[in-house]
Design brief:
The protein has 508 residues and is mainly α. It has 21 helices and no strands. It has helices at 10-29, 36-42, 48-57, 62-76, 78-97, 102-112, 118-129, 132-146, 149-165, 170-192, 216-242, 248-279, 289-321, 325-337, 339-352, 356-374, 383-411, 416-438, 443-464, 480-489, 491-500. Helix 9 crosses helix 10 and helix 16 packs antiparallel against helix 19 (443-464). The relative contact order is 0.13.
Amino acid sequence: MSDVFKFKNEQMKVLHLTWIAFFVSFFTWFNMAPLATTMMESSSWLTNEHLAALAIINVALTIPARIVIGMLLDRFGPRIVYSGLLITMSIPTFMFAFGDSWTQLMVSRLLLSSIGASFVVGIRMVSEWFPPKDVGFAEGIYGGWGNFGSAAGAMLLPWLALTMFGGDEGWRYAVALTGVICIVYGIIYFIAVRDTPEGKAYIKPKKSGAMEVSSWKDLILLIIWTVPLGGALAVLAWRLAGLGFISHTVLHVTYVVIGLTIIYQIYKILQVNIPILKRGVPEDDKYEFKNVAALNSTYFANFGAELAIVSMLPMFFQLTFSLSPTTAGIIAASFAIINLVARPLGGILSDRMDSRKNTMLIYMIGITAGLGLMGFIDSSWPLILAITVTILTSVFVQGAEGATFAIIPMIKKRLTGQVAGMAGAYGNVGSTLYLTLYTFVTPQTFFFVLAGGALISFVMCYLWLEEPENAFAEDYYESSVDMANAVSNEPEFELKRAASGNDYRLKG
């Protein structure tokens, strides 16, 4: 841990600059929730129903954006994509800040939901700068510390709106400030970082548009796992219709658009992979898609559960133990704040234990047990015991997130952006489906549902997840295709290799 604070080390400098980029993204993404009541007080037409609809819209494009950003990332590199995303997302931030109609607020919030894809970018950047033996630790720091941006927004934005700016329009200037920060930091990030350390090539896929697979069976699996991503968007549209913000006609048109988008994505999957599979994948370049599926399930079960729990926990504690809203909010906040420690711990344990798979399994069974215990919490429990169980469950939930992304860069290095994008999208699919289910069940039953999801993920990891090659090595496994791509994508890299006396030409 002491190495984290050696700021002159370029490796650590990139880690810090990258988690700050993630922090800025989440600070901006969640800039509405802490200002919701202030917005209602300053606008005579805004209602609780409007805010509920905006909360749904705030995650609508995150799922497809994570897939798209994953592809762009593997193609263009994290430096350009992260900088471009931050600067671009400042536009809908300003639109939302100064919007004075429902249409403006809705459209700008919809566009701004794409900033949730920022998480994926740093996963690839960090994996380029840290070797397999340390990548879990680094990814945990990136995710855990960056994710705190949402909590920082909850603490700072009300003060900025009410005290620093003040007046009925104070919330607008507070939101606009987050847009300014996005622009400024986007420029700083572009200037201050590189995609890879000196002398290391950034290996890209041969084709963009869809994830490469290694067998016809995996091609079918990829298509099967792509469909639910559109299904989650359909659920969000259905919820908006239920709140009365879109008509049945618009809902049906949305369903058609989502269906066509899924068909187009399946077409791209076939377009990219059929030529590869017909030509034949070299043995040393093959990977099993079931590993991606297993990690999709873990992020569905851990990050999906986290977002769902954070949304309902304040009210649960307030009603169960007859607490004030402030006290219940502070207790519930502990579930998110523990992320600062728990997620890096998950990455560190994945790096230090003998098996990354076993670390993942331990975390998933811990989540199952913790959420199962939370299902028994009622007013007869001592409050301190309920808080203890909640915090311990949070340690497992967020540690599992760190353990998940300690494995993802090792599945297929050149596809890290797309694998991270798909797993990240499944986290949002999980939160969408869980929160929809929450509207039909009691809080106690809800916790049992979450525990069931974690148990299913445990079984999937036990059956499908494999220990990665080079899991604790000094460098990532590179296939013959990776080395060929490095040379073809980076001509200057070939010259550097020749000058250094290292021959990386393919034999045979």
